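User: I'm putting together a small comparison set for a docking exercise, and I want a reference complex before I start. The sequence is below, and the ligand is thymidine-5'-diphosphate. Could you produce the 3D structure with the ligand included, as structure tokens?
Assistant: Of course. I'll restate your input first, then give the structure tokens for the complex.
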Amino acid sequence: MARPKILHSCIECGATSPKWQGQCPGCGQWNTLVETVAEPAAAANRFVSLAGDEGAARIVTLASVEAREETRTPTGIDELDRVLGGGIVRGGVVLLGGDPGIGKSTLLMQAGARLAAVGQVLYVSGEESAQQIALRAQRLQVDAERLQLLTEIRLESVLARLAEAKPLLAVIDSIQTLYSDALTSAPGSVAQVRECAAQLTRYAKQSGTAIVLVGHVTKEGALAGPRVLEHIVDTVLYFEGDTHSSYRLVRAIKNRFGAANELGVFGMTERGLKAIGNPSALFLAGHAKPVAGTAVLATLEGTRPLLIELQALVDTAYGAMPRRVSVGLENNRLALLLAVLHRHAGIATGDQEVYVNAVGGMRVSEPAADLPVLLAIASSLRNRPLPAGLIAFGEVGLAGEVRPVQRGQDRLREAAKLGFSRAVVPKANLAKPAVPGIEVVGVERLEDALEVAWR
Ligand code: TYD
Ligand code: MG
């Protein structure tokens, strides 16, 4: 069989060139040309041909389309089902990204073994030998009887086996080890990763097999890694959390079949990943006595309220440029908040170094963290702990106003459930029917919040 024609196309602008060049002839960007398979002319000209359009799509009205729920199969691992939006979807393609060694293979083996009880599951591994995988299955004590295994890295062979087996779910571990005969680039290159993912996606849509692609995040966190695939697949999940601690977070970055930003929490144990049902307890440091420089935030992760301890350390600076360092929170936001703290509450930190940290390797990006961050900073600066049992949330604006955040009621309920007795929140978030078990104080200005928090 003749090799398909190869082109080099720009990943930025789409311009093509028959030969590889350092600079794109279309947009002038450097190093953006990657190998791609040229589409046959017939397919490319499909839209201009007037004759013979049988098989082409017809225009329909939206009302005439039957809105069917996707058929979902739950994996039985609650925290994974939560991020998937209920389970795997027929023909759906999921990308599971994360650092090497964080637990991607472990999670998929556990989920695969469970799903194998209801349908055929094929685990395609290009990374590990069959022996290594068998060893892991033994360690995880999963039912190895039903799980089918294929160690293969050639895409065409994988597709042929899939077409024979027609599984319910196929796991590709990992997309970076696959290569297609059509391209000459090495496995793991942008060209190969894109081509293999595109072919597998096409197969999933045609056959109804759900596919999970494992993608390693490269050191730069971007290319040849999962990022180039995000637009091709239906669902993008990323493993977060550091490999030094035992728990792992799986976050849905994109989900065509469910809510994005949903979070699943797992603990890595001797026998694989265990779902953690009450994750708030993880992100609270649990001090025996209140300590200065900490405040508890009630945040939302997807649809789930979560309590996280925020810590601040304010200390005399000796250099000309005091450092502002934040771990798990946005650095620019910290600089902005310190300016608001100075201007509107009269608390100066210009000669101080300020460090803030979200406990447990958690990343918080929502502005609701503003108020507790500032409370923690003020607490550290004054060396006065906040009263025990206090939580806070609220966005702080440049004018010093405390603005409402979404779903305050749910946040308060989670706090009350975990035994917190007092909350400082934006006035606009004051719960209409009061949440039992927690005293809620509404504030309009940052100055007020800094006062009532210690009362
Ligand atoms: P793995 O799933 O192989 O990571 P990835 O596929 O993301 O590269 O997980 C590897 C790590 O998990 C490894 O450091 C060992 C640890 N681990 C456990 O702690 N318990 C277990 O039961 C298993 C299978 C792995
Ligand atoms: Mg692995």
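The chain has three domains: 6-38, 70-277, 282-452. Residues 43-49 have pLDDT under 50 and may be disordered.
User: Thanks, that's exactly what I needed.
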